[in-house]
Amino acid sequence: MARTGWARTGGGPDGAGQDQAGADLPAADQASGDSTSTDVASTDVASTDGAAADTTAAKKPCSSGLELFAKDHDNGGDEGAYAMVATADGGVLLLGGNGNGGSSSNALAVRVSPAGGVVWAKELGGADMDRFRGGAAAANGAVAVGSTRSPTNGLDDGWLVHLDSSGKAGLDQHYGGASNDEFLGIAAAPGGWVMAGSTRSLGNGQEEGWLVRVDAKGQLLWQQNYGGTSIDTLAAVIALPNGNFAAVGENSSSAKQGSDAWLLIVQGDGKPLISKTYHMGEHDYATAVAALPDGGLILTGEASANGNPELWVARTDAEGNQLWKDVVTGNQAETGRAVSVLADGGWAVAGDSSSSNPGSLGGIDGWLLRYDAWGNRMWNKHFGSNGNEWFSAIAAPADGGLWLGGRRWASGGLNTWYLRVNAWGHSSCAAAGLCKDKLASDCQDALPCTLDDCDPSAGCSHPALQAGSACGAGQLCTASGCQ
Known about the structure:
Elements: E1 15-20, E2 24-25, E3 69-73, E4 78-86, E5 92-99, E6 105-112, E7 118-124, E8 130-138, E9 141-149, E10 156-164, E11 169-175, E12 181-189, E13 192-199, E14 208-215, E15 220-226, E16 232-239, E17 245-251, E18 260-266, E19 272-278, E20 285-291, E21 297-305, E22 308-316, E23 322-328, E24 334-341, E25 347-353, E26 365-371, E27 377-384, E28 389-395, E29 402-410, E30 413-421, H1 429-432, E31 453-455, E32 459-461, E33 470-472, E34 475-478, E35 481-482
């Protein structure tokens, strides 16, 4: 583990595991929504491609009818999920696109029940290129953002759509100008939403970071481009408790070479407060961000290290000062694409890996990494088969487990791929063994220098952290305990 600036390098066992993907599901009906403008109130439960929260009570997954699973959905084209919104019933809404050989695509929304069944699947858009890339919870449903090909100039516009609980589209708004513009993330804001992406219509004509704030009717409150003389983009945004917004992406304008990962914090009116870049190699970028209870932030993305793209996780304070980083290296490519903070104060990162690390399955694997509240990497698991799979989205239900979403190569094409795993990354009740009826809280021992784990054959276990591992604010594990 590469760690700088906050605590000495340390951590628990780097356990790797694997889980196979589950059976295919039949395709559901396709539909397109009407284009209207309605008043849709935002809620306090927000999701980007990085995180979502479930408001249902904790249930033990394998003894309460909530199975663990890995499933595909095929809507008839090359498709995948890029974002996920937790629904009030404990299921999820998957958001992405369904393409046709690269010549056209529709935006795709798939509602999944808590038990893993497809409730409905809807395609939206026109005859050209349309897709969803982010989402957030809203009253009576969710809002989705992405890009749609403009009927006026043939270029991309940023796109905001409200979907009710049955998948019917209501609010349907385009944003942008005379060039290509796209939204990649969205967060709930008081009375509406804020959306993040990139614009060529504003500024210097190259891609610049773009934030747009709208009210509950989708009416523009403000928009602002951010960046410099080169290519700069924003990929995700979250609302902070103090009314500010934090967005992350890629900044080339201030990089000495290539690009740096970028954190931008703005006021509620879009005025920049903090802009920080993080340099690791020639090409670095951030894909997702999540807020910690103490006001700090967790970022993930990709960093250039040892000549390969590598998954990167960093913790910052509330001002964006990096406290530590973890660059997870392999012999090929790894990328972090989504992050979720969990009830115990730790977090999970989802992405993909093509390296032949222990536990790898061949090709590109969906990859899940779990960290404790102090940044010790607890375990990592590979998911999929010997083909290619990618995780792009994550959500945290109340039982301490995780929903994961992405895409998977199957039967000659790409399918939407979604999994529900328990707190230790098992994607079937059979594979979970003695852990199948346990919540994350059942295996907590409250000792700062142990990890809380669960082994399918032995049940709860508590391996000791290595000496020098972080165990508290400014504290490290020693032979005498956490000091």
